[in-house]
Write a structure and sequence with these properties.
By secondary structure, the chain is α+β, with helices and mostly antiparallel strands. It contains two helices and two strands; from the N terminus they run H-E-E-H.
């Protein structure tokens, strides 16, 4: 089993990669954006659905190898 230090490094790398990908994918059609004056609101509903589908597939494939 991995020790805690290696696990945190791996999680950090995964979060950095997700953050880099998110900057390119963050505003796809279907996301809700609202701007009025100084206030802006962005709710990435389609991005969340796409990420959810991708993660479901990844975890399903990883589960098959266990």
């Amino acid at each position: 089993m991995m020790n805690a230090g290696k696990l945190f490094i791996l999680l950090g790398i995964i979060f950095v990669v997700i953050g880099l990908i998110w900057t390119f994918v963050g505003r796809i059609p279907g996301d809700i954006s609202f701007k009025k004056g100084n206030f802006s609101f962005h709710f990435p509903i389609m991005t969340s659905i796409v990420v959810s589908i991708i993660l479901t597939l990844v975890f399903y494939i990883l589960g098959k190898f266990r």
